[in-house]
Amino acid sequence: MVMNTAIVLALVAGVLALVYGGVTAMWILRQPDGNDRMREIAAAVQTGAKAYLNRQYTTIGIVGVVLFVVLGFVLGWTTAAGFAIFAQSGGGLAVLLAFRRRCKVLAFSSIFSAFAAFCDRG
Predict the structure, then answer these.
(1) Is 77 contained in some domain?
(2) Is 71 inside any structural domain?
(3) Which domain covers residue 73, as residue numbers?
(4) What is the tally of structural domains in the chain?
(5) Is residue 99 part of a domain?
(6) What is the pLDDT of residues 84-117, one digit of tens each?
(7) Is the entire prediction scored with pTM above 0.85?
(8) C-beta pairs of 95-99 under 8 Å, 24+ apart in sequence
């Protein structure tokens, strides 16, 4: 009985975390990107980040295939499939959102800095 309650609580906490993450991601993506120069710099950084991530994902992909096979034989193919779907897809989404969030935070901080300077003119 206690184990079932713990599992249900863990699942509810996981769903709440996913909902919070989704709402937060949507809010961040709706924020302004900044001025033209900030967008230009962000595009250059994103190009470099994509090249780096392609190389990194090649290496991670090899490790992921090895782990998939080991998990399949040791814990079962259902567990291995769950690993393949959630571990691999979640990482790419997190990196994409993290980069876009940084650009928007930079834009917001520059707006906030200008507002703070205006308020401090006194």
Answers:
(1) yes
(2) yes
(3) 31-119
(4) 1
(5) yes
(6) 777 766 666 666 666 666 666 555 555 555 544 5
(7) no
(8) 95/49, 95/53, 97/25, 97/28, 97/29, 99/45, 99/46, 99/49
Inter-residue contact 103 to 33 (CB < 8 Å): yes
φ, ψ of residue 76 to 5 degrees: the values are 110, 155
DSSP codes, 49-94: HHHHHHHHHHHHHHHHHHHHHHHHHHT-HHHHHHHHHHHHHHHHHH
Counting as low any pLDDT under 70, the low residues of the chain are 1-2, 88-122
Return the C-alpha torsion angle 96, 92, 98, 28, nearest 10: 60
Residue 67, token pair as written in the block: 């782990």
Residue 1 lies in a domain: no
Neighbours of 41 (CB within 10 A): 13
Q: Do the beta carbons of residue 48 and residue 98 sit within 8 Å?
A: no
